[in-house]
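Ligand: PLZ. Inputs:
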Amino acid sequence: MSGTDSVSRPPDGAGAPGGPGLAQVRRLATPIPGPRSTELAKRRVNAVARGVGQTLPVYAAAAGGGVLVDVDGNSLIDFGAGIAVVNVGNSADAVVDNLTEQARHFTHTCFMVTPYEGYVAVCEELARLTPGSHDKRSALFNSGAEAVENAVKIARAYTGRPAIVAFTHAFHGRTNLTSALTAKARPYKEGFGPFAPEIYRVPMAYPYRWPGGAEACGEQAAGQVIDTITAEIGAENVAAMVIEPIQGEGGFIVPGAGFLPALTEFCAAAGIVFVADEVQTGFGRTGDMFACEHEGIVPDLIVTGKGIAGGLPLAGVTGRAQIMDAPQVGGLGGTFGGNPLACAAALGAIATLERENLVDRARLIERVALPRLRALRDRYPFVGDVRGRGAMLALELVGTGPPTPGQVAPPPDRGVAVACAAEAHRRGLVLLTAGTWGNVLRLLPPLVMPQHLLSEGLDLLDEVLSDIARHH
Ligand code: PLZ
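Predicted complex:
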């Protein structure tokens, strides 16, 4: 049921088409959700499996810059960027131009059948942009999860070892192997097992909730990780350690100082492939091109996705040539991996990131937003922690009671996070939650978001928290 009577076109004046030219204003034309979104939600119930979640009940019609316009003509401030994907904004000019140009020439040949330049060019860009000056190779895939799986395959092929080490609060995807790497049971794992074997979980250095305190967190957690690997798993059995340099879905956890360097040093000495999952943190999001740079660490393999291609499905594994070249010829691939349209979009997105200095823009977003978030923490007792880097910032919301046994911080309060997000949505602010306990509000604006929208979004967040505080 599409065509001329489609409800997916915004009403006149709603601002379509999208892209950077879209009016950069918040505007509520109807209650959220409006009638057209409500109509689509009814169709959805009978067509889409209920297991596929949704954050906001509004249906998108156009997006660009810092706004998302729905089918009822509401223009919302976008603090989500499609979960850290449209760092360069929706329908960025260079992405659209490259995409349409490529679409006119060919849409698919399969890189494993007859290769094409775009794939090679993206791999060259990945070698140039990722940390480390060593000789690198890349392989391209369709999703972050698929790329993480391939990083594990590559590390096993290289080391001949079975075990993989992952962390508490980790998220690496929803396929069987990556579900095994992912920490949180509900909604990701419950009912979906059994999961892939030989996955071992060790503690993430989570400063806010570390029993020994934030100061000691990095060093103590690294000590525990190394001891567990050495004494219980056996370092000689471990192919790879897979870690997000700043955890995303787990709650924007920035590991305690010294944690990541201690782990890379240990892995290098033990012959363990250190895999940085930069799917959420990559491409300028944290104020560096990659989050590892801030720590001064050079991963053996780096997994990218999300922000790489301005919204087209593309992901990659990049790393040391001798590790990447360990799998036999034909051992890596897939029908669509490194699709020509996605590669063309990626080259446009990367050019945009560099031309518009969007890595610096992420730092500017931090400079503007972080002090305001800290002021919220000082004002509202249910804001327990403020953290993050660049345009990847979060508030951890907590109850006011005593810490749960074994915890140093107050108990997580998912209810208040859900209430804040829902209230933000009603006011026209796309705001996402995260966290093992679902109690984290996360800010992931497109890096191109204009200053006035960033400020207005922060004002709205403040209003929301003060409203919630009154009823709390
Ligand atoms: N690694 C660090 O953040 C995806 C997941 C959304 P895919 N994060 C958003 C959801 O609820 O499924 C992610 C990530 C990190 C891997 C992935 C997986 O990337 O492209 O979603 O497969």
